[in-house]
Design a protein that fits this description.
alpha/beta; TIM Barrel; eight-stranded parallel beta barrel; 24 helices
């Protein structure tokens, strides 16, 4: 199995290589999901690739954020550079980027980010169709679930990687909006401010950090992961420093070596406690999602662990050992620092000498520290042309060499006759031959020019209204409105599948709405539902269900939690999966929405009123808040438990915790989202607007019944000038901050 290490800066990457990592993942100074890490520049990347490959270590680049249209030109420019490096893979979340890579940059290997929260076999087949060569599986999965998905991945020529060490998220990755809503720092843009680790007003259960999980560690589970067929063990930590990376990686290297060389596992993991940790848990991996996975302190657990292990009888001995640990940590830092200082990522200097005279070929001699070679033009120099050869002109033609692991240190034209000319295409040919030799006999890939979108048809669209419900008691709403009625299916309904099939058969106009997370038996149940109901249309927030709809010829709409934010994502969905329409992410702003170009025969949708889901968790959120008699989650928790409460942080932000029957635990924002401005701001773009009238308790209140709300939104879409004011009066308090600031 591959050992995959984090690299948040150059020193951490060097530390990972020294410690024996098989691969390193790192991000550039933009377009990656760890903006708080120092990250690296493109110039750094070339030297890193050379150093890593000299040490049999691969390098994967993180481009794992969602993009908006204005960023696409810069992204394409970066991809055009990357195809001419020796990068071993790019890690991706955005569906539009998947489209660009599979269509125009096929030379780059594509890895599916953890931000795609991959947890069922349909999602793996979806990613296979997008040419993913590797997928990072959701952190919430058990060994049993990982084994089943890895088998499917291998059948589809996809490798699997699993996080085995470092921070856990309390939320399923990619569908957490807590940081985005509270502070404008979107996790889908690499800016998560980790509000889940904030201090809250002490809960009834006596906890100050009720959403704070221990760190993940599968130290004792490697054999099971190997037997499950997992290809890569991934260590989290691109915000961590070089001493942390070195210590963790070298210990995991020892553990892997012990397994494969001696068929036994090391039992001492004490070194992992000597660097930053929040204590460790393997609860998700073991399928034991329990109360002990929490820790009521987000800070470093090292010193406290020392006390727990040794059970000191005197304060003096404890203090002595604490001082010893600090000294050991400083010693580790100094030792690693001295080692990484010996490694260089500097580019290799080149000396280029250009010579020749009229009537003879141009000669370009290139000298590296270890070798030299000469390239000659196939056309002789002449006394006529567009631009005479001089230092500035030659450097301009050859400066692309500086984008490789080499740089032009010295360029001389002393032996070149003045006022001689060579056709530009011949200079281009020389450049290509030089690059071919420097790049180990690899041809340079020409820059791709992605076709511009055709201008949209200016024909105005009259948008329709749709309503989301989750209770059969609300079916009557469909009798008094022309709005489409979507019905939210639970995350898990394996024990009620027959009832839901009957519900939809009796109400043929009802449109199924599938959730974001559909794991294991619940995925099988969803497929059984599709088979029996044969709906004419579905909305899905899960790409695995989307894939199955595509395979079965069912018309489908991409839900708002697929994080669609750019025009290429729309093309990806339509051209690869015959998607009929998509909800646009509520994270993006009015300006960013206006940049969208939709494909022909494709509908755009937007949710203008809804409770804001901040996160979805497989863990029980009530253990640390109200207390729970059960030590761990079981099947009856998901199917039967109904609870709700709220917690407030020290900034006085209140969030609502909700557990309903058949669903995972969710957290909702205090204020619902209400955006009445978009109807006129971007008139003609959207085919439909959604209002969410499920019974979810938040701080937002409505002064009329659900039918009254529907009627007022219908008035809004019909252009009634008073409807905006009326809606803002009858629904209070609300927010549309994300629409104003975007991502």
């Amino acid at each position: 199995m591959e050992l995959l290490a984090p690299g948040g800066d150059v020193d951490s990457i060097k530390a990972a290589i020294l410690a024996g990592a098989d691969a390193v993942y790192c991000g550039l100074d933009k377009f990656n999901a760890r903006n708080r890490a120092a990250n690296i520049t493109f110039n750094d990347l070339q030297g890193i690739l050379r150093l890593a490959h000299q040490n049999n270590c691969q390098v994967f680049l993180t481009l794992n954020i969602i993009f908006v249209d204005s960023e696409i030109p810069a992204l394409i420019s970066l991809l055009n550079k990357l195809v001419n490096t020796s990068i071993d893979g790019v890690i991706v979340q955005d569906l539009g980027l998947f489209y660009l890579l599979s269509r125009y940059f096929t030379g780059l290997k594509v890895h599916a980010s953890t931000q795609l929260t991959t947890h069922n076999e349909g999602q793996i087949r979806f990613l296979s169709r997008l040419k993913a060569s590797r997928v990072n599986l959701s952190r919430e999965l058990s060994i049993h679930e990982i084994k089943a998905l890895t088998a499917v991945a291998h059948q589809n020529q996809i490798l699997t990687e699993v996080f085995v060490h470092g921070s856990y998220c309390i939320s399923f990755s990619g569908i957490c909006y807590l940081s985005s809503v509270q502070s404008g720092n979107s996790g889908n843009r690499g800016r998560c401010s980790q509000p889940c680790r904030d201090r809250y007003v002490t809960t009834r259960a006596g906890k100050d950090y009720p959403l704070n999980l221990k760190d993940n560690s599968a130290w004792f589970d490697i054999r099971e992961l190997y037997e499950a067929g997992v290809d890569s063990l991934k260590i989290e930590g691109r915000i961590k420093k070089y001493d942390y990376v070195y210590t963790v990686v070298i210990n995991w290297r020892k553990q892997l070596s012990s397994l494969f060389e001696h068929n036994e596992l090391l039992t001492d993991n004490s070194d992992l406690y000597k660097v930053f940790n929040r204590d460790f848990s393997n609860g998700f991996l073991k399928g034991s999602i329990n109360k002990a996975m929490f820790i009521d302190n987000p800070r470093d657990h090292s010193i406290k662990h020392l006390s727990e292990v040794n059970d000191y009888s005197s304060d003096n001995k404890l203090e002595e050992d604490q001082i010893g640990l600090y000294e050991e940590k400083e010693g580790i830092k100094a030792s690693v620092e001295s080692k990484i200082e010996q490694l260089s990522i500097a580019k290799i200097p080149l000396e280029i000498n250009v010579s020749g005279e009229r009537g003879l070929p141009l000669k370009v001699m290139l000298k590296t520290p270890n070798a030299s070679f000469v390239v000659e033009s196939e056309v002789n120099l002449s006394d006529k042309g567009t631009e005479p050869l001089d230092s500035a002109m030659v450097f301009k033609r050859l400066k692309v060499i500086n984008d490789t692991e080499y740089f032009i240190e010295k360029l001389t034209l002393d032996d070149l006759q003045p006022n001689v000319y060579l056709p530009f295409k011949e200079l281009t040919a020389i450049k290509k031959r030089l690059l071919f030799i420097l790049n180990d006999s690899r041809d340079t890939v020409e820059a791709v020019h992605v076709p511009a979108f055709r201008k949209q048809n200016s024909e105005k669209i009259k948008p329709s209204l749709s309503v989301l419900i989750s209770s059969s008691e609300d079916l009557c709403l469909g009798n008094d409105t022309t709005a489409d009625i979507y019905f939210q299916l639970p995350d898990s309904f394996k024990y009620e599948c027959t009832e839901y099939v009957d519900l939809f058969r009796k109400n043929e106009t009802l449109i199924p709405w599938f959730p974001s997370v559909v794991i294991g038996d619940d995925y099988s149940t969803a497929l059984e539902f599709l088979e029996q109901v044969q709906p004419r249309l579905i909305v899905t927030n899960n790409t695995g269900i989307a894939y199955q709809a595509f395979q079965r010829g069912i018309s489908w709409i991409a839900g708002p939690f697929l994080n669609v934010a750019n025009s290429y994502s729309l093309l990806c969905l339509k051209e690869n999966f015959n998607c009929s329409g998509a909800f646009i992410s509520n994270e993006i702003s009015q300006t960013q929405i206006r940049q969208l170009n939709k494909p022909d025969d494709f509908n755009l949708y937007y949710s203008i009123y809804h409770p804001i889901v901040l996160m979805t968790s497989r863990q029980c959120l009530f253990h640390q808040v109200t207390g729970c008699q059960k030590e761990q989650i079981d099947d009856t928790c998901i199917s039967q438990c109904e609870k709700s409460t709220s917690i407030t942080n020290l900034k006085n932000d209140t969030i609502y915790l909700e557990k309903s029957k058949g669903n995972y635990h969710r957290i909702f924002n205090e204020e619902n989202f209400l955006n009445v401005d978009i109807v006129s701001d971007v008139a003609g773009l959207f085919s439909g607007f959604l209002i969410d009238l499920r019974d979810i308790k938040t701080g937002t209140q409505t002064d009329v019944n659900k039918l009254g709300v529907i009627k007022q939104f219908e008035n809004l879409l019909c252009g009634n000038p008073d409807s905006k004011t009326e809606l803002q009066k009858m629904i209070h308090s609300t927010t549309n901050a994300q629409y104003k600031r975007g991502i």
